[in-house]
Design a protein that fits this description.
The chain has a domain of about 90 residues. The chain is about 35% helix and about 25% strand. A hairpin with a 2-residue loop joins strand 12 and strand 13.
Protein backbone atom coordinates (compact mmCIF):
# COMPACT_ATOMS: atom_id res chain seq x y z
CA UNK A 1 0.00 0.00 0.00
CA UNK A 2 1.42 3.39 -0.97
CA UNK A 3 2.36 5.85 1.75
CA UNK A 4 -0.44 8.26 0.89
CA UNK A 5 -2.96 5.50 1.58
CA UNK A 6 -1.50 4.37 4.90
CA UNK A 7 -3.40 7.18 6.61
CA UNK A 8 -6.40 8.92 5.04
CA UNK A 9 -7.56 12.26 6.50
CA UNK A 10 -11.10 12.26 7.92
CA UNK A 11 -11.42 15.71 9.42
CA UNK A 12 -9.60 18.06 11.81
CA UNK A 13 -6.95 16.01 13.62
CA UNK A 14 -8.41 12.64 12.57
CA UNK A 15 -7.02 9.99 10.19
CA UNK A 16 -7.99 6.47 9.19
CA UNK A 17 -5.62 3.58 8.54
CA UNK A 18 -7.59 1.47 6.03
CA UNK A 19 -7.88 -2.30 6.19
CA UNK A 20 -4.88 -4.23 4.94
CA UNK A 21 -3.38 -7.61 5.60
CA UNK A 22 -5.09 -9.37 8.51
CA UNK A 23 -6.76 -6.25 9.96
CA UNK A 24 -10.45 -6.81 10.75
CA UNK A 25 -11.13 -3.17 11.71
CA UNK A 26 -9.47 0.05 10.56
CA UNK A 27 -7.07 2.11 12.62
CA UNK A 28 -8.17 5.56 13.76
CA UNK A 29 -5.47 8.09 14.57
CA UNK A 30 -6.02 11.43 16.27
CA UNK A 31 -2.96 13.62 15.67
CA UNK A 32 -1.58 16.76 14.08
CA UNK A 33 0.27 16.73 10.76
CA UNK A 34 3.71 16.72 12.39
CA UNK A 35 2.87 13.52 14.28
CA UNK A 36 1.43 11.95 11.14
CA UNK A 37 4.60 12.84 9.23
CA UNK A 38 6.72 11.17 11.92
CA UNK A 39 4.54 8.06 11.93
CA UNK A 40 4.90 7.76 8.15
CA UNK A 41 8.64 8.38 8.33
CA UNK A 42 9.04 5.58 10.88
CA UNK A 43 6.91 3.36 8.67
CA UNK A 44 9.09 4.14 5.68
CA UNK A 45 12.22 2.93 7.43
CA UNK A 46 10.49 -0.38 8.27
CA UNK A 47 11.59 0.26 11.84
CA UNK A 48 10.65 -2.31 14.46
CA UNK A 49 9.60 0.73 16.46
CA UNK A 50 6.84 1.75 14.05
CA UNK A 51 3.82 2.76 16.11
CA UNK A 52 1.66 2.66 12.99
CA UNK A 53 2.62 -0.96 12.32
CA UNK A 54 1.79 -1.76 15.95
CA UNK A 55 -1.62 -0.11 15.53
CA UNK A 56 -2.34 -2.28 12.50
CA UNK A 57 -1.37 -5.37 14.48
CA UNK A 58 -3.81 -4.44 17.24
CA UNK A 59 -6.50 -4.03 14.56
CA UNK A 60 -5.94 -7.67 13.61
CA UNK A 61 -6.56 -9.15 17.08
CA UNK A 62 -9.60 -11.40 17.58
CA UNK A 63 -12.83 -9.72 18.63
CA UNK A 64 -11.66 -6.10 18.33
CA UNK A 65 -14.57 -3.69 17.88
CA UNK A 66 -14.95 -0.66 15.57
CA UNK A 67 -11.32 0.47 15.30
CA UNK A 68 -7.88 0.32 16.85
CA UNK A 69 -7.28 3.83 18.13
CA UNK A 70 -4.21 6.00 18.58
CA UNK A 71 -4.10 9.40 20.28
CA UNK A 72 -1.79 12.38 19.68
CA UNK A 73 0.78 11.13 22.23
CA UNK A 74 1.26 7.89 20.27
CA UNK A 75 4.69 6.28 20.25
CA UNK A 76 5.89 2.67 20.03
CA UNK A 77 5.34 0.38 23.00
CA UNK A 78 5.68 -3.30 23.78
CA UNK A 79 3.60 -4.75 20.93
CA UNK A 80 0.75 -2.31 21.61
CA UNK A 81 1.43 1.38 20.87
CA UNK A 82 1.55 3.75 23.82
CA UNK A 83 -1.32 6.17 23.41
CA UNK A 84 -3.34 3.26 22.05
CA UNK A 85 -6.83 1.90 22.71
CA UNK A 86 -8.38 -1.41 21.78
CA UNK A 87 -11.94 -2.39 22.76
CA UNK A 88 -12.91 -6.06 22.55
CA UNK A 89 -16.22 -7.89 22.48
CA UNK A 90 -16.63 -9.75 25.76
CA UNK A 91 -17.69 -12.99 24.03
CA UNK A 92 -15.30 -13.15 21.07
CA UNK A 93 -12.49 -10.86 22.14
CA UNK A 94 -9.18 -11.23 23.91
CA UNK A 95 -7.24 -9.76 26.80
CA UNK A 96 -3.73 -8.62 25.85
CA UNK A 97 -0.84 -8.17 28.30
CA UNK A 98 0.78 -5.69 25.91
CA UNK A 99 -2.43 -3.63 25.97
CA UNK A 100 -1.95 -2.97 29.68
CA UNK A 101 1.82 -3.04 30.03
CA UNK A 102 4.17 -3.57 32.93
CA UNK A 103 3.16 -0.61 35.11
CA UNK A 104 -0.46 -1.52 35.71
CA UNK A 105 -2.64 1.51 36.47
CA UNK A 106 0.22 3.93 36.35
CA UNK A 107 -1.63 7.19 36.70
CA UNK A 108 -1.81 10.71 38.05
CA UNK A 109 -3.49 12.12 41.13
CA UNK A 110 -4.06 15.86 41.29
CA UNK A 111 -4.31 17.55 44.69
CA UNK A 112 -5.56 21.10 45.18
CA UNK A 113 -4.59 23.59 47.86
CA UNK A 114 -6.50 26.78 48.67
CA UNK A 115 -3.30 28.82 48.22
CA UNK A 116 -2.06 31.07 45.44
CA UNK A 117 1.51 31.04 44.21
CA UNK A 118 2.31 34.37 45.87
CA UNK A 119 1.50 32.79 49.24
CA UNK A 120 4.13 30.04 48.91
CA UNK A 121 6.80 31.59 46.68
CA UNK A 122 9.17 32.41 49.54
CA UNK A 123 8.79 28.89 51.01
CA UNK A 124 8.94 26.89 47.79
CA UNK A 125 12.52 25.74 48.39
CA UNK A 126 11.62 24.47 51.86
CA UNK A 127 8.51 22.75 50.53
CA UNK A 128 10.43 20.99 47.76
CA UNK A 129 13.09 19.82 50.20
CA UNK A 130 10.45 18.52 52.63
CA UNK A 131 8.70 16.56 49.87
CA UNK A 132 12.03 15.15 48.64
CA UNK A 133 12.94 13.98 52.14
CA UNK A 134 9.47 12.71 53.04
CA UNK A 135 8.53 10.70 49.92
CA UNK A 136 10.70 7.67 49.05
CA UNK A 137 11.71 7.74 45.38
CA UNK A 138 14.18 6.09 43.05
CA UNK A 139 14.81 2.55 41.84
CA UNK A 140 14.02 0.03 44.61
CA UNK A 141 12.89 2.73 47.06
CA UNK A 142 11.13 1.41 50.16
CA UNK A 143 8.31 2.96 52.17
CA UNK A 144 7.56 2.98 55.86
CA UNK A 145 4.32 0.97 55.69
CA UNK A 146 4.87 -2.52 57.12
CA UNK A 147 2.67 -5.24 55.63
CA UNK A 148 2.26 -8.96 56.23
CA UNK A 149 1.25 -11.26 53.40
CA UNK A 150 -2.35 -11.12 54.65
CA UNK A 151 -2.21 -7.34 54.82
CA UNK A 152 -0.97 -7.14 51.25
CA UNK A 153 -3.70 -9.48 50.03
CA UNK A 154 -6.26 -7.25 51.76
CA UNK A 155 -4.76 -4.17 50.12
CA UNK A 156 -4.87 -5.82 46.67
CA UNK A 157 -8.59 -6.48 47.12
CA UNK A 158 -9.53 -3.11 48.63
CA UNK A 159 -7.20 -0.61 46.96
CA UNK A 160 -7.12 2.96 48.26
CA UNK A 161 -9.81 2.25 50.83
CA UNK A 162 -7.40 -0.07 52.66
CA UNK A 163 -4.96 2.84 53.11
CA UNK A 164 -7.72 5.20 54.25
CA UNK A 165 -8.90 2.60 56.78
CA UNK A 166 -5.43 2.71 58.34
CA UNK A 167 -5.75 6.46 58.92
CA UNK A 168 -3.87 7.70 55.82
CA UNK A 169 -6.38 10.01 54.20
CA UNK A 170 -10.11 10.63 54.28
CA UNK A 171 -13.21 8.86 53.06
CA UNK A 172 -14.00 11.79 50.75
CA UNK A 173 -10.75 11.11 48.89
CA UNK A 174 -12.27 7.89 47.58
CA UNK A 175 -15.17 9.67 45.91
CA UNK A 176 -12.74 11.43 43.60
CA UNK A 177 -10.76 8.41 42.41
CA UNK A 178 -11.44 6.43 39.26
CA UNK A 179 -13.64 3.48 40.34
CA UNK A 180 -13.41 5.03 43.83
CA UNK A 181 -9.92 3.57 44.05
CA UNK A 182 -10.88 -0.10 43.77
CA UNK A 183 -11.29 -2.27 40.66
CA UNK A 184 -13.77 -5.11 41.18
CA UNK A 185 -12.75 -8.70 40.63
CA UNK A 186 -9.30 -8.56 42.21
CA UNK A 187 -8.04 -11.96 43.36
CA UNK A 188 -4.72 -12.01 45.23
CA UNK A 189 -4.41 -15.73 44.43
CA UNK A 190 -3.86 -14.69 40.79
CA UNK A 191 -0.71 -12.79 41.82
CA UNK A 192 2.55 -14.70 42.26
CA UNK A 193 4.38 -14.85 45.57
CA UNK A 194 7.36 -13.21 43.84
CA UNK A 195 5.24 -10.22 42.84
CA UNK A 196 3.97 -9.86 46.40
CA UNK A 197 7.40 -10.14 47.97
CA UNK A 198 8.71 -7.47 45.61
CA UNK A 199 5.93 -5.14 46.80
CA UNK A 200 6.00 -5.52 50.59
CA UNK A 201 8.01 -2.35 51.20
CA UNK A 202 7.07 -0.33 48.11
CA UNK A 203 3.62 1.01 49.05
CA UNK A 204 3.97 4.77 49.39
CA UNK A 205 6.98 5.11 47.07
CA UNK A 206 7.32 7.15 43.91
CA UNK A 207 9.69 4.94 41.93
CA UNK A 208 11.92 6.01 39.04
CA UNK A 209 11.70 6.45 35.26
CA UNK A 210 9.03 8.92 34.20
CA UNK A 211 7.38 8.96 37.63
CA UNK A 212 7.36 12.27 39.45
CA UNK A 213 5.78 14.53 42.02
CA UNK A 214 5.34 18.18 41.08
CA UNK A 215 4.23 21.30 42.89
CA UNK A 216 2.48 23.29 40.18
CA UNK A 217 0.60 26.52 39.64
CA UNK A 218 -2.55 26.91 37.56
CA UNK A 219 -1.07 29.12 34.88
CA UNK A 220 -4.19 29.51 32.78
CA UNK A 221 -7.84 28.54 33.06
CA UNK A 222 -9.07 27.50 29.60
CA UNK A 223 -12.61 26.30 30.39
CA UNK A 224 -14.09 28.28 33.27
CA UNK A 225 -17.22 26.15 33.71
CA UNK A 226 -15.30 22.90 34.03
CA UNK A 227 -12.56 24.51 36.14
CA UNK A 228 -15.17 25.78 38.57
CA UNK A 229 -16.71 22.31 38.81
CA UNK A 230 -13.26 20.84 39.58
CA UNK A 231 -12.39 23.60 42.07
CA UNK A 232 -9.50 25.03 40.01
CA UNK A 233 -8.71 28.75 39.82
CA UNK A 234 -6.04 31.03 38.36
CA UNK A 235 -2.68 31.04 40.22
CA UNK A 236 -3.76 28.17 42.48
CA UNK A 237 -1.06 25.89 43.89
CA UNK A 238 -1.66 22.21 43.13
CA UNK A 239 0.33 18.97 43.44
CA UNK A 240 0.53 16.16 40.88
CA UNK A 241 1.57 12.60 41.78
CA UNK A 242 2.53 10.33 38.88
CA UNK A 243 3.31 6.73 39.75
CA UNK A 244 1.81 3.25 39.52
CA UNK A 245 1.85 -0.28 40.87
CA UNK A 246 5.63 -0.42 41.27
CA UNK A 247 7.33 -3.84 41.35
CA UNK A 248 4.09 -5.76 41.79
CA UNK A 249 2.63 -4.55 38.50
CA UNK A 250 5.87 -5.20 36.66
CA UNK A 251 6.09 -8.74 37.96
CA UNK A 252 2.45 -9.45 37.04
CA UNK A 253 3.29 -8.40 33.48
CA UNK A 254 6.34 -10.63 33.37
CA UNK A 255 4.47 -13.60 34.83
CA UNK A 256 1.51 -13.41 32.49
CA UNK A 257 3.42 -12.84 29.29
CA UNK A 258 4.55 -16.45 29.59
CA UNK A 259 1.03 -17.66 30.40
CA UNK A 260 -0.45 -15.72 27.47
CA UNK A 261 2.12 -17.08 25.03
CA UNK A 262 1.02 -20.59 25.98
CA UNK A 263 -2.65 -19.60 25.84
CA UNK A 264 -2.28 -18.15 22.34
CA UNK A 265 -0.97 -21.48 21.13
CA UNK A 266 -3.49 -23.50 23.16
CA UNK A 267 -6.47 -21.70 21.63
CA UNK A 268 -4.91 -21.62 18.15
CA UNK A 269 -5.21 -17.84 17.98
CA UNK A 270 -3.85 -15.68 15.19
CA UNK A 271 -1.39 -13.28 16.81
CA UNK A 272 0.24 -10.72 14.49
CA UNK A 273 3.41 -10.75 16.58
CA UNK A 274 4.61 -12.44 19.81
CA UNK A 275 4.48 -9.27 21.90
CA UNK A 276 0.68 -9.30 21.49
CA UNK A 277 0.27 -12.66 23.22
CA UNK A 278 -3.28 -12.90 24.52
CA UNK A 279 -6.07 -15.20 25.67
CA UNK A 280 -9.85 -15.24 25.19
CA UNK A 281 -11.52 -12.99 27.74
CA UNK A 282 -13.70 -15.83 29.00
CA UNK A 283 -10.92 -18.41 29.20
CA UNK A 284 -9.41 -19.50 32.50
CA UNK A 285 -6.19 -17.75 31.51
CA UNK A 286 -7.99 -14.54 30.54
CA UNK A 287 -10.05 -14.38 33.72
CA UNK A 288 -7.03 -15.08 35.88
CA UNK A 289 -4.98 -12.34 34.22
CA UNK A 290 -7.80 -9.81 34.62
CA UNK A 291 -8.04 -10.72 38.31
CA UNK A 292 -4.31 -10.03 38.62
CA UNK A 293 -4.64 -6.73 36.69
CA UNK A 294 -7.33 -5.63 39.14
CA UNK A 295 -4.90 -6.38 41.98
CA UNK A 296 -2.21 -4.33 40.26
CA UNK A 297 -4.63 -1.46 39.70
CA UNK A 298 -5.71 -1.49 43.33
CA UNK A 299 -2.07 -1.52 44.41
CA UNK A 300 -1.47 1.63 42.34
CA UNK A 301 -4.50 3.39 43.84
CA UNK A 302 -3.24 2.48 47.31
CA UNK A 303 0.25 3.69 46.47
CA UNK A 304 -0.98 7.11 45.34
CA UNK A 305 -3.21 7.32 48.43
CA UNK A 306 -0.25 6.72 50.71
CA UNK A 307 1.84 9.31 48.87
CA UNK A 308 -1.07 11.74 49.21
CA UNK A 309 -0.82 11.32 52.98
CA UNK A 310 2.92 12.05 52.85
CA UNK A 311 2.33 15.15 50.71
CA UNK A 312 -0.24 16.44 53.17
CA UNK A 313 2.16 15.85 56.04
CA UNK A 314 4.97 17.77 54.34
CA UNK A 315 2.70 20.65 53.33
CA UNK A 316 1.36 20.89 56.87
CA UNK A 317 4.87 21.12 58.30
CA UNK A 318 6.08 23.77 55.84
CA UNK A 319 2.97 25.81 55.05
CA UNK A 320 0.78 25.12 58.08
CA UNK A 321 -2.15 23.83 56.06
CA UNK A 322 -4.45 21.26 57.63
CA UNK A 323 -4.41 17.96 55.70
CA UNK A 324 -8.13 18.43 55.07
CA UNK A 325 -7.34 21.66 53.22
CA UNK A 326 -5.53 19.63 50.54
CA UNK A 327 -8.30 18.18 48.42
CA UNK A 328 -8.14 15.33 45.92
CA UNK A 329 -9.39 16.68 42.60
CA UNK A 330 -9.13 13.34 40.78
CA UNK A 331 -7.03 10.23 40.34
CA UNK A 332 -6.99 8.56 36.91
CA UNK A 333 -4.93 5.67 35.56
CA UNK A 334 -3.50 5.19 32.08
CA UNK A 335 -2.49 1.51 31.80
CA UNK A 336 -5.62 -0.60 32.28
CA UNK A 337 -8.03 -3.15 30.85
CA UNK A 338 -11.57 -2.58 32.13
CA UNK A 339 -15.11 -3.72 31.37
CA UNK A 340 -17.21 -0.76 30.23
CA UNK A 341 -20.48 -0.03 28.47
CA UNK A 342 -20.23 1.82 25.13
CA UNK A 343 -22.55 2.61 22.23
CA UNK A 344 -21.30 1.09 18.96
CA UNK A 345 -23.35 1.63 15.79
CA UNK A 346 -26.32 2.65 17.92
CA UNK A 347 -26.18 -0.43 20.16
CA UNK A 348 -24.99 -0.43 23.78
CA UNK A 349 -22.38 -3.14 24.25
CA UNK A 350 -20.23 -4.43 27.06
CA UNK A 351 -16.58 -4.25 26.02
CA UNK A 352 -13.19 -4.89 27.53
CA UNK A 353 -11.34 -1.64 26.85
CA UNK A 354 -7.53 -1.71 26.88
CA UNK A 355 -5.90 1.67 27.39
CA UNK A 356 -2.12 1.63 27.05
CA UNK A 357 -0.77 5.07 27.88
CA UNK A 358 -4.31 6.44 27.65
CA UNK A 359 -6.79 7.53 30.30
CA UNK A 360 -10.48 6.99 30.67
CA UNK A 361 -12.02 10.28 29.49
CA UNK A 362 -15.74 10.01 30.05
CA UNK A 363 -17.81 12.99 28.93
CA UNK A 364 -20.90 14.54 30.47
CA UNK A 365 -23.62 12.39 31.95
CA UNK A 366 -21.79 9.15 32.77
CA UNK A 367 -22.63 7.65 36.14
CA UNK A 368 -18.98 6.66 36.63
CA UNK A 369 -18.04 10.31 37.21
CA UNK A 370 -18.32 11.80 40.71
CA UNK A 371 -21.68 13.60 41.08
CA UNK A 372 -19.92 16.97 41.39
CA UNK A 373 -18.35 16.47 37.94
CA UNK A 374 -21.14 14.65 36.13
CA UNK A 375 -22.42 17.63 34.15
CA UNK A 376 -19.03 18.33 32.56
CA UNK A 377 -17.37 14.91 32.68
CA UNK A 378 -14.57 13.87 34.98
CA UNK A 379 -11.07 15.41 34.75
CA UNK A 380 -8.31 13.96 32.59
CA UNK A 381 -4.94 14.58 34.25
CA UNK A 382 -2.24 14.91 31.58
CA UNK A 383 1.44 15.00 32.50
CA UNK A 384 3.70 16.98 30.21
CA UNK A 385 7.39 17.38 30.93
CA UNK A 386 9.18 18.85 33.91
CA UNK A 387 10.28 21.79 31.75
CA UNK A 388 6.99 22.72 30.11
CA UNK A 389 3.52 22.13 31.53
CA UNK A 390 0.83 19.66 32.48
CA UNK A 391 -2.86 19.96 31.65
CA UNK A 392 -6.29 19.17 32.96
CA UNK A 393 -8.73 18.17 30.22
CA UNK A 394 -12.29 16.86 30.17
CA UNK A 395 -14.03 14.29 28.02
CA UNK A 396 -16.63 15.07 25.36
CA UNK A 397 -19.61 13.41 23.72
CA UNK A 398 -17.57 13.09 20.53
CA UNK A 399 -14.81 11.31 22.42
CA UNK A 400 -17.30 8.82 23.79
CA UNK A 401 -18.33 7.91 20.24
CA UNK A 402 -14.98 8.08 18.45
CA UNK A 403 -12.51 6.90 21.09
CA UNK A 404 -14.48 4.81 23.61
CA UNK A 405 -14.25 7.71 26.07
CA UNK A 406 -10.44 7.78 26.05
CA UNK A 407 -7.94 10.61 26.31
CA UNK A 408 -4.23 11.38 26.18
CA UNK A 409 -2.02 10.66 29.17
CA UNK A 410 1.04 12.80 28.47
CA UNK A 411 3.30 14.32 25.88
CA UNK A 412 4.60 11.06 24.39
CA UNK A 413 8.27 10.27 23.89
CA UNK A 414 10.26 11.15 20.79
CA UNK A 415 13.52 9.64 22.11
CA UNK A 416 14.03 6.37 23.94
CA UNK A 417 15.52 6.61 27.42
CA UNK A 418 18.81 5.25 26.08
CA UNK A 419 19.01 7.88 23.34
CA UNK A 420 17.95 10.67 25.70
CA UNK A 421 20.67 9.69 28.19
CA UNK A 422 23.26 9.99 25.43
CA UNK A 423 21.98 13.34 24.19
CA UNK A 424 21.34 15.20 27.47
CA UNK A 425 23.48 15.73 30.59
CA UNK A 426 21.59 15.64 33.87
CA UNK A 427 23.47 18.63 35.32
CA UNK A 428 22.73 20.70 32.21
CA UNK A 429 19.03 19.82 32.28
CA UNK A 430 18.79 20.75 35.97
CA UNK A 431 20.52 24.10 35.32
CA UNK A 432 18.18 24.88 32.43
CA UNK A 433 15.15 24.12 34.57
CA UNK A 434 16.42 26.38 37.35
CA UNK A 435 16.88 29.18 34.82
CA UNK A 436 13.15 28.79 34.07
CA UNK A 437 12.32 29.04 37.77
CA UNK A 438 11.73 25.30 38.13
CA UNK A 439 13.45 23.67 41.13
CA UNK A 440 14.42 20.02 40.74
CA UNK A 441 15.22 17.34 43.31
CA UNK A 442 16.32 13.97 41.92
CA UNK A 443 17.95 10.76 43.13
CA UNK A 444 19.71 10.11 39.82
CA UNK A 445 21.44 12.31 37.25
CA UNK A 446 20.86 9.58 34.67
CA UNK A 447 17.16 9.74 35.43
CA UNK A 448 17.19 13.47 34.75
CA UNK A 449 18.88 12.85 31.39
CA UNK A 450 16.37 10.19 30.42
CA UNK A 451 13.48 12.46 31.31
CA UNK A 452 14.83 15.64 29.73
CA UNK A 453 12.03 17.78 28.26
CA UNK A 454 13.64 17.43 24.82
CA UNK A 455 13.00 13.67 24.88
CA UNK A 456 9.26 14.33 24.57
CA UNK A 457 6.82 15.83 22.12
CA UNK A 458 5.64 19.37 22.69
CA UNK A 459 2.80 18.92 25.19
CA UNK A 460 1.07 22.06 23.94
CA UNK A 461 0.89 20.64 20.41
CA UNK A 462 -0.38 17.30 21.74
CA UNK A 463 -3.17 19.02 23.69
CA UNK A 464 -4.02 21.28 20.74
CA UNK A 465 -4.33 18.22 18.49
CA UNK A 466 -6.59 16.55 21.03
CA UNK A 467 -8.82 19.62 21.21
CA UNK A 468 -8.88 20.02 17.42
CA UNK A 469 -10.16 16.47 17.02
CA UNK A 470 -12.97 17.17 19.49
CA UNK A 471 -12.37 14.08 21.64
CA UNK A 472 -11.42 16.17 24.71
CA UNK A 473 -11.25 19.83 25.78
CA UNK A 474 -8.55 21.66 27.70
CA UNK A 475 -9.64 22.96 31.12
CA UNK A 476 -6.42 24.33 32.67
CA UNK A 477 -2.70 24.53 32.07
CA UNK A 478 -0.39 23.79 35.01
CA UNK A 479 3.20 25.09 35.18
CA UNK A 480 5.78 23.17 37.28
CA UNK A 481 7.39 24.97 40.22
CA UNK A 482 9.13 22.15 42.09
CA UNK A 483 9.83 18.67 40.71
CA UNK A 484 10.69 15.49 42.66
CA UNK A 485 12.20 12.68 40.53
CA UNK A 486 13.46 9.20 41.31
Amino acid sequence: MSEQHLLVPQGPGEWIAPLQGSMTVPGRVFADRDTIAQLLADEGTQSQWSALAQLRNVAALPGIVAAAIALPDIHPGYGFPIGGIGAFDVETGVVVVGGVGFDINCGVRLLATPLRYSQIESRLESLGEALFQRIPAGLGAQGELRLTILDLDDLLKRGAEYIVSKGYGFAEDLRFLEEEGCIAGADPHAVSDLAKHRQFRQVGTLGSGNHYLEVQVVEDVLDSESAEAYGLFQDQVVVSIHTGSRALGHQIGQDYLKDMARASAKYNMHIPEPELACAPINSDEGRRYLAAVACGANCAFANRQMITHLVRSAVQDVLGLSPRDIRTIYDIGHNNAKFESHVVDGITRQLLVHRKGSTRAFGPGRDESPPAYREVGHPIIVGGTMGTASYVLRGTDAGMVKAFGSGIHGAGRTLSRKKAAKKYWGETVAAQLLSQGIRLWAHSLKGISEEAPGAYKDIHHVVDATSASGIARAVARLRPLAVIKG
